[in-house]
Amino acid sequence: MADPGVPVDCDTAVCLADLAELARRVLPAAVYDFVAGGSGAETTLAGNRAALDRVAVLPRVLTGTADPDLSARLPGGVAALPVAAAPMAYQRLVHPDGELALARASAAAGVPFVASTLSSYPIEEIAAVAGPLWFQLYWLRDRSLVRALLARAEAAGATAMMVTVDVPLMARRLRDVRNAFTLPETVVAANLTRDLAAGLAAGPDDRAHLAATGVSAVAAHTADVFAPALTWQDIEWLRGQTDLPLVVKGLLDPRDAALAVEAGADAVVVSNHGGRQFDGAPPSIVALPAVVDAVAGRAQVLLDSGVASGTDVLRALAGGAAGVLVGRPLLWALAAGGERGARRAFDLLRAELSDALTLAGCADVAGARDLRTLTIGGTR
């Protein structure tokens, strides 16, 4: 958890990268690594940033654009920005207010907050302070518990249901292995029963065992609790359990995007899990155009993994995305300053996107989708 004795001033941040540096100052090294790290050699993690930086947007000129409209229709309604706060587990790990602070900041920004199955506050408490609320589902081995989570989310007022499909098992995250990472006793998976949530915290003896076996406590717990062998029939079953918009997160292959639509998805999220799952997967921004083509307007397409600025949001929109999920930058902001830090992050993102749209000659978010982009390899 962040060290309250280390003073930081979030108002000094002029970009989201500044907030990441402020977070580094206050977080314990193992916690910083847990958030920052990827799987394996972190090739995909690095690739996300490198690929986004290779996307150049061709701006239009003499369009008479000023004060662009930043609003966008996303699953469940209209958002003030084409952005949702990505589902991220155990947010109390970086700040005591955790999901509650980030949900309040998301509400103030007018964007959806996606509450994770592995939130460190229960969905009911998050819903009490959130604006637009989506619930992200990790599939548990006990289907009755899946059904119970869905019912709780709907009762709490969720406006969309997101299922993550790229975690049949948690990939080896070497920073966590080297750190024998465990959660402190004060941070739990608050949406799960006590028995399911147990096993994430560990003492010195447990840490030594984890280091010797080459796994982290979080990975070991995930293997015990998550169902590893989902199929498209499970997604069809899920579609039949809720009338809320269904969002399938974790697709890269356009064939899977098409199957998701056939199974009843209202939206798909092109994502490599922020470089935290299959190390060797392509950057999400590279996979985006083919997914957009495969979906062919039958569902919305969102982009996740690596988005860290308003320019990145514009790049995703120009590639055909309806919007993006923003992850780590919001956790860094939360670590640096709680709700105030998260509000600062959204303010910066809003200002950057407004500037990017204006400079690219776009009056609104829809106009950004008509832009063309160039990469090192040519026109996209």
Description:
Keywords: Flavoprotein, FMN, Oxidoreductase. Helix 1 runs antiparallel to helix 15. By secondary structure, the protein is α/β, with parallel strands linked by helices. The relative contact order is 0.20. The longest helix is centred in the last third of the chain and has 32 residues, at 328-359. The protein has one domain (10-371): TIM Barrel (Alpha-Beta Barrel), CATH 3.20.20.70. The chain has helices spanning 16-26, 29-36, 43-54, 98-109, 123-129, 143-156, 174-179, 194-197, 204-213, 217-225, 232-241, 254-262, 284-295, 310-318, 328-359, 365-368; strands at 56-58, 72-74, 77-79, 83-85, 113-116, 133-137, 160-164, 246-251, 267-270, 300-303, 323-326, 372-375, 378-379. It is globular, with a radius of gyration of 20 Å.
Give the topology.
Blueprint: H1 16-26, H2 29-36, H3 43-54, E1 56-58, E2 72-74, E3 77-79, E4 83-85, H4 98-109, E5 113-116, H5 123-129, E6 133-137, H6 143-156, E7 160-164, H7 174-179, H8 194-197, H9 204-213, H10 217-225, H11 232-241, E8 246-251, H12 254-262, E9 267-270, H13 284-295, E10 300-303, H14 310-318, E11 323-326, H15 328-359, H16 365-368, E12 372-375, E13 378-379
Parallel strand pairs: 4-11, 5-6, 6-7, 7-8, 8-9, 9-10, 10-11
Antiparallel strand pairs: 1-12, 2-3, 12-13
